[in-house]
Amino acid sequence: MSTPDTVTVDGPGLRDDPSRPGPVDVPALLAHSRETVGPALRAAVARLDVSSREQAEYHLGWVEADGSPGRGGGKAVRPALALLSAAAAGAPAETGLAGAVAVELVHNFSLVHDDLMDGDRERRHRPTVWARWGAASAILCGDGLLTLATEVLLEDRSPHAAAAARLVAVTTRELIRGQAEDVAFERRADVGVDECLTMAAGKTGSLLATSAAIGAVLAGAPTAAVRGLSDYGMAVGMAFQLVDDLLGIWGDPAVTGKPVLSDLRSRKKSLPVTFAVQRGGAAGRELAAWLAHTGEQTDAELRAAADLVERGGGREWAGAEARRRMVAAERALAGAGLAAGPHAELLALGHHLIDREF
Amino acid sequence: MSTPDTVTVDGPGLRDDPSRPGPVDVPALLAHSRETVGPALRAAVARLDVSSREQAEYHLGWVEADGSPGRGGGKAVRPALALLSAAAAGAPAETGLAGAVAVELVHNFSLVHDDLMDGDRERRHRPTVWARWGAASAILCGDGLLTLATEVLLEDRSPHAAAAARLVAVTTRELIRGQAEDVAFERRADVGVDECLTMAAGKTGSLLATSAAIGAVLAGAPTAAVRGLSDYGMAVGMAFQLVDDLLGIWGDPAVTGKPVLSDLRSRKKSLPVTFAVQRGGAAGRELAAWLAHTGEQTDAELRAAADLVERGGGREWAGAEARRRMVAAERALAGAGLAAGPHAELLALGHHLIDREF
Questions:
Q1: What phi and psi values does residue A63 have, to the nearest 5 degrees?
Q2: Per residue in A70-80, pLDDT tens?
Q3: Residue A76: what pLDDT?
Q4: Which ipTM value was assigned to this complex?
Q5: Which residues of B touch A147 (CB under 8 A)?
Q6: What are the TM regions of this chain, as residue ranges (chains A, B) (predicted)?
C-alpha cells in the first residue's frame, strides 16, 4: 500500500481542465462525480412513492431526521468509477451517467436491506431506515431503489443500455448470493478461506467490478476493455474488503469511526479471522474456541483474540493478499487499452480506496 | 357476474387444437400455460444461490418442507395472460414466454416480501418463507426473484425485450407504491375511497395489466393493442380485488379457504369497509367506531360489523363497481383489434377470476 493518492497523468479524464497534465486530486474527482450524478440520482429517487422517497432521501444523506438539509452521504465511489469507465473507453464521461446512477441505486438498495438483515441500528452515526421507520418501510424502500436502477438504465439512449441493465441484474444476483452466504456462514464454525473469499467477491467485489465496467459497456467498448475494467474493479473490491477487515481489528477508532477491535467484539468471521482459524495451527484452534464462546468480553480479552489472529498468520496473510490484488488490478488496467488520463484516474481512485491507515 | 366460464371461440389461441372452434376450458388453458412456462421458470430459479433457490422452490410449491415433491403452487394466472397477450397480437404464444416468466417472478417476489411485512405466517396452509427461514432469507429470496425477472426479459431475443423489461420495472414500482400505501393506511382512520382504489390499482391492478400486455409488447404490437390489453388487465384486477374484498367478509369458508368474516376479524380496511365508513352515514360512523376498538371480538360482533358494512352500502357498491369494471374490461378488449381466439380466451380467463361464489 505504498502508492500515494497523487499520480501524474498525461491525458483527459474527469478533471475540469483535462489538457493540463498534473496530479490526480481524488477528493476533487469524487466531488466532481457527485455533482455530475446528483441531479439524475435525485430525479430517479423522486419517482418513488411518497414514503419510500422520504426514506431514500434520508438514507442518502440529503435530508436529516428533522427535515433540515442533509449533511451528505457517502463518497459515491461507484458512480465515479462508472463515469471514469466511459472516459477510459474513449467516450465522454457522461456516457456512463445512467450506469453511475444505477450502481449507486443498487449499492444503496443493498445497504438498506443489509442494515435490516444485520440488525444494524446506525449508519454514519444516524439511525438506519428500519430503525426509524420499521422493517416494512426498509424492505419497500430497498425494493424501490433496486427497481429504479433498472428503469434508469433502460431509459438511456445508448444502444447498449439493455446490455448494461442485464449486467446490473446479474451483479445484483451476485450481491444477493454474497449476503445469503454471509447470513449462512454466521451459523457455521467451519467456514473455509476460499468460501469466505467467494462471499466477499459477491458482497463487495461484484458491484465494484460492474461500476468500473458499466460506462465502457454503455460506450460500446471492445470486450477486452470491458473485461480489463471489470477485473480491475473486482481486484480493488477484494483488496478493499481485506483492508476493511484488517481495520475492523487493528484500525484506529479515530480514523475508522468504529470502536477499537469492533469486528472481534461482534465475533465477525472476517477474512483474517477465517484464515487464522483454518490455517493458523495452535493459535487458530485457540481462536476458534474463543469464537465459540458467547457473552461480553473485556478489552484485554479482545486484544488477546487479536493477538491470536496475528499469531495465526491472519494479519500478514490479509495484508499480502490485499497487496497482491492491487498488483492484479494495475495489471488488468494496463492490458485493457484505455485512454491514459482516465486510466491514471482509475488507478489513483483505487489506491485512494485502499490506502487507509491500518 | 353472469358470464359463464365457457365461451365459444372461433380462432386460434392456447388450446391444443386451435382449428376446432369450441368452448374455452379455462382450467385446461391454465394447466397448458403452467406446462409451457414451467421449464423456463425452473431454469431461472435454478440460478439463485443455494439458499434462495431452496426457499423459492418451496414457496412456489415445487418441493415440500420435508424435501418431498411439491403439491404445486398457484394457478399461475399472470403467465397465462402473458402468453395469451402475445397470441392476441397475432404472434405465437411462445413470443410471450419471457414475459410470462417475468410476471410470475415479480408476483412471487411481492408475495414473499408482503408475507414478511404483513406478518403472515401461512400461505396456502404452509408456513411462509420468513416463518420457516427467518426475515433475512425472505428479504434475499424476494430480492433474487425480482432480479431474475429483469434478467430473463433482457436475455430474450425479441427486439422489444428492453421495452418489456422497462414496463416490468415501472410496474414493480407501482406494486411497491401500493404496498407502501397499504402499510401507511393501516395507521390512518380517514382513508378515502379514491385513495383505497388507487392503492388497489398499485397492489393488484398494475401487475395484471402488465401481464395482459407484456406478450403484445414482446411481439411488437401496435400501441392501441397494448393499451387495450393493459386496460383490460387493470379492469379485471380491480374487479378481482373488489370481489376478493367481498369474499373476505361474506365468502363461504369452504370456498375461500379463509375463516368466516376473516377480513373483519383482522379489521382490514378493505374497499367495501372503506366505502361504508366514508359514505355510509350513521352505519358508517358506527362501523368506524367499531374499527377503532381493539381486542378480540365474538362471531356475533363480527356479524354485526358485517351488517354495518352492508347497511352503509359497502356490499352493494363493491358488487356494482366490480360489474362495472368487467364491462370496461370487455370494452377495452373489444377495441384493441385482437385475434378472435385469444380474445375469447382472455375474456373467459377474466371471468374465471371474477366469478367466484359470494
A1: -135, 150
A2: 988 788 999 99
A3: 92
A4: 0.91
A5: 146, 169, 172-173, 176
A6: none
